[in-house]
Amino acid sequence: MQIRNFSIIAHIDHGKSTLADRLLQATHAVSQREAREQLLDSMDLERERGITIKASAVTVHHTHEGERFMLNFIDTPGHVDFTYEVSRALTACEGALLVVDASQGVEAQTVANAYLAVEQDLELIPVINKIDLPHAHPDEVAMEIEQVLGLPAEDCIYVSAKTGQGIDELLYHICDTLPTPREQVTDKLRALIFDSVYDDYRGVIVYLRIFDGRIKTGDKIRMMGTGRTFIITELGKYTPKPAKVDTLGTGEAGYMVASIKTLSDVRVGDTVTLDHSRAEQALPGYQEPMQMVFCDFYPATSAEGGKGREFEQLREAVEKLRLNDSSFTYQAEHNDALGFGFRCGFLGLLHMEIVQERLEREGDVEIIQTAPTVTYQVKMRNGDVIDIHNPAELPDPSLYTELREPIVKVEMIVPNESIGDVMALCGNRRGVFKNQQYLSDTRQILDYDLPLAEIIYDFYDKLKSMTRGYGTMDYDMVGFQTGELAKVDILVNGQLVPALSLICHREDAVQRGRTLLIKLRRAIPRHQFEVPLQVVIGGKIIARETIKAVRKNVTAKCYGGDVTRKRKLLEKQKAGKKRMKTVGNVNVPQEAFMAVLEARD
Length: 601
Prior knowledge:
By secondary structure, this protein is α+β, with helices and mostly antiparallel strands. The chain folds into five domains: 2-177, Rossmann fold (3-Layer(aba) Sandwich); 190-274, Elongation Factor Tu (Ef-tu), domain 3 (Beta Barrel); 293-371, Elongation Factor G (Translational Gtpase), domain 3 (Alpha-Beta Plaits, 2-Layer Sandwich), CATH 3.30.70.870; 383-482, 2-Layer Sandwich (Alpha-Beta Plaits); 486-598, 2-Layer Sandwich (Alpha-Beta Plaits). Helices cover 27% and strands 33% of the residues. The chain contains 14 helices and 32 strands. Strands 11-10-16-7-8-15-12-13 form an eight-stranded antiparallel β-sheet. Strands 2-3-1-4-5-6 form a six-stranded mixed β-sheet, sandwiched between helices. Strands 22, 23, 24, 25, 26 and 27 form a six-stranded antiparallel β-sheet that branches. α7 (309-324) packs across α8 (349-362). The longest helix has 21 residues, at 563-583. The chain starts with a strand and ends with a helix. The relative contact order is 0.08.
């Protein structure tokens, strides 16, 4: 039996999951009765949002020219935040279907995913989808693919995943042009872990791809990275329902259950080998993803309540999710206003949103999230370079010589009529123009270097608005660059509140600080005493707002008589307020912490 391993890659909404559905039906893996839209998107969140979040691996069988083929394919996410999922899936494959929408053409993530596949030396089959749409122009899109990606236009396969047109031809090409798995280099087992999930009844379920050797139920295996050993209790494949098998051979992909109870025993990218006949060298595995956005998660309780059961519940939920999504990081954190929680790192804003929603659903916890920040680098006077994930951690300016911010290369595909607006937007966000490339009569590719801090909040929304929804973008980390940056601190009633600190460009610092104060003044409720709010930049107070005290009209009973009677009562009240201010605590509500995020509107 011949084996073909491939991934389905594309920009968002170009029809990857629908194409996967059609392949399942065409190979009779699911019956007409079982078929439903986005069959492989099993998570409720995926079905609600209509996006793929987790890559799904499936094995189907197909007969081509009288020969049996085993097709192992992975449906991958399209959003830029989940590029790590795509790169993990591609490592387990020899080929990829690059899907392009016949009406939209080549988009930013199409280019990014194609480059990812080329870097892994994969065979690419360009597939032009949605040819059934009335405004589809597949021939022009095929020329775009040739111009931008260098794949011959005549190699493109025209399909409609919705109607099933062209699917048989696609299956023919998959069997005919995609390479077979490489020959095994050693007889000893080497299997790559490319994903894992936690099951309350069976422990950790590991997804693996066998590169060398064979694996069977009952084998004693060793994780080469962690050194732990386990005995396999179950092997299987998703077809797309779980189907048990006794053995998995070279080139095959499947799942493994081995009574793994501890989450830390499994690491994505680790190599599995047999304990009694160990492989000398592990497989290359994966490069660790670089977290770009950081924020804090706290249980939605008082500072006292956060120390107890809710915090433990949140810790458990975070640990389980980390096993399934190794691209986010976490560490324990404490905040005077919000209690105990976690400082988490993410690949982007959508990734952060998805992780928060999954924690709330799968872990059954309510979460408060602070405003997101990016990583900065500080070069100390002694030459050390340290990473700062939280503005509050920034050392005293006298201790460092340089403060560096992360710079990303942004590739945007925009309609011709919107180029001026997009260039103005990039200019306002301190962007540096790099390149402009002709794509077709109606669209062009713009390359800019932009500070990550300027694009993580609302840049994508503004780009979509300016281009009437037709603009797309993809970004890639370039490195860190020294910038004119300043730390903005907020004093509430004379006390520094670290969670409200932020780092921004020196030119924007005063404006950002003033805007933030106005938002805080509205968000923090009035107290029995006057509460001053101040902005501090470089040790100097540069702005102030005051929340007036809640006052009782003490002179209401005074009618007529000498004015000194009223003044005496007012002075008495004033002295009481002053005394209260020295002992009173200011209650800062959770909305105030989110005001940092909105301070740039």
